[in-house]
Specification:
The protein is of the alpha+beta class. The protein contains 18 helices and 18 strands.
């Protein structure tokens, strides 16, 4: 499963193959965030982009008789062409996705490749779509079958457009065929430290509407719609939306929280990172640091909490409320605002998420993060007195990563994406080693020339 990129911002050409943990390194402004956001957007929109068209006569039969059956096995033979059309459709919408100027990506080509894809027909699929007062659409697939039963119930006198029905059913077919095989994405952007503004102050659509209405005696609907457009790339907007819905979503339990005993290691290391807990009080997010002996318990609004606390909010939110099985977590600079100690802890937090079944993509500038991941990899080897050494270094079994779980890339050299070797000694990120060696050499040169 990989993405091929051509003429994508700074990147002329290259490809990224997704592993359990995919790492993107490189200097600033070379396209790391573009790649991570595009991966998120493609998987987020794939069900709508795939275009599993239904024959018109089947749609007529559904509206007249209320029931049809879809041959999923037959449709699965078109999956590769659907991947291609989805890639083309996503590429053509990049300006809107990134909120970029028109024709900003006019030479860009993004292609998703998954040659060995096979649907899992063993899964049960059930979905109910409500068309308000007009009717209900039910989609059902039994275990170990390749047939999807579609039933439509409409209220008296109501007629749902065949075009709308066809689009909705096509999306459900894609969801059914891709279930358990392609990941469910969630993104944590580098703008996350602005959470206080996003959560408390930002309500772009509402403010734009009020401003437009107050400034105009006569409302222009086109101008109104244009004023409501987001000022952000879609991943950032999605982060804003999920934060604004915290009051409701915080009541959910992720698959990790549902089986907390099994995944206790994830919660333990998250607590080690946070040093406290988030809570919702009167529709606001607060942070409660862990109480220290001899000090009063305090609770602070998140907007006046430390930058590291703001940066970690979405990690806590994801682990407790949002993580889904077969998930893909995409993180822009997980080390953001973290002390080197916590950057090392973050590396083991990522390892534990990976070993819980969540695929992860990270962009990073952190040598500390990479070095600690290398320790996770080296512990997969046969080591003398391994248990004793792991205990001494604070590692548990779920911190261990195998080289084959990781793919790593250095982006920017020659406007290309360069695959980096990962072996039993870790990730060979020479970009960091060379910088550290140069800095040490400069320090030595200066030190030995200082006059007594």
């Amino acid at each position: 499963m990989k993405f091929k990129f051509n003429q994508f911002g700074y990147i002329d050409k290259g490809e990224v193959e997704l592993a359990d943990l995919t790492i993107l390194c490189g200097k600033n402004n070379v396209g790391k965030t573009y790649i991570s956001y595009a991966t998120y957007g493609f998987f987020k929109k794939l069900q709508r982009l795939a275009e599993f068209h239904i024959e018109k006569h089947q749609m007529v039969e559904l509206r007249e008789n209320g029931v049809i059956q879809i041959d999923l096995l037959g449709l699965s033979e078109r999956i590769q062409s659907c991947f291609k059309s989805a890639s083309d459709n996503f590429t053509s919408g990049l300006e809107g996705f990134f909120n970029a100027p028109d024709d900003y990506f006019h030479n860009t080509k993004i292609e998703f490749v998954c040659d060995n894809f096979k649907p899992d027909f063993s899964l049960v699929f059930k979905k109910v779509i409500n068309f308000g007062k007009h009717g209900i659409l039910r989609c059902d697939k039994a275990e170990n079958t390749d047939k999807l039963d579609i039933a439509l119930q409409t209220s008296t006198g109501s007629r749902i457009s065949l075009g709308i029905l066809s689009d909705v059913i096509a999306e459900q077919i894609a969801t059914c065929l891709f279930a358990g095989q392609l990941p469910l994405p969630f993104v944590i952007t580098s703008e996350r430290t602005g959470i206080a503004l996003f959560y408390k102050e930002l309500d772009i659509s509402k403010n734009a509407i009020l401003e437009h209405l107050s400034d105009n005696d006569k409302v222009n609907p086109i101008e109104l719609l244009n004023s409501m457009r987001s000022r952000y790339a879609e991943p950032i907007k999605d982060n804003i939306d999920v934060i604004r819905d915290y009051e409701n979503v915080s009541k959910r339990k992720s698959f990790l929280k549902e089986d907390k005993e099994k995944y206790q290691g994830v919660f333990d290391i998250l607590q080690e990172l946070l040093g406290g807990a988030f809570k919702s009080i009167d529709k606001q997010v607060f942070f409660q640091p862990k109480k220290e002996r001899g000090r009063e318990k305090i609770v602070v609004p998140v907007y006046i909490a430390s930058s590291s606390t703001k940066s970690l909010f979405l990690f806590d939110y994801y682990v407790n409320c949002l993580a889904e099985k077969n998930g893909l977590l995409i993180i822009d600079e997980p080390e953001l605002n973290l002390h080197p100690d916590n950057q090392r802890i973050m590396a083991r937090f990522l390892a534990r998420l990976v070993n819980s079944g969540i695929k992860i993509i990270v962009t990073t500038h952190s040598d500390y993060l990479i070095r600690e991941l290398n320790n996770c990899i080296m512990f997969s080897n046969e080591i003398k007195n391994k248990s004793e050494l792991m205990k001494k270094q604070g590692f548990i079994e779920h911190d261990i990563l195998k080289p084959e779980q990781i793919s790593a890339y250095n982006i920017g050299t020659g406007h290309a994406i360069i695959s980096v070797n990962v072996d039993r000694f870790g990730i060979n990120m020479a970009i960091f080693d060379e910088l550290i060696a140069n800095s040490n050499q400069a320090a030595d040169d200066i030190y030995y020339r200082i006059e007594e």
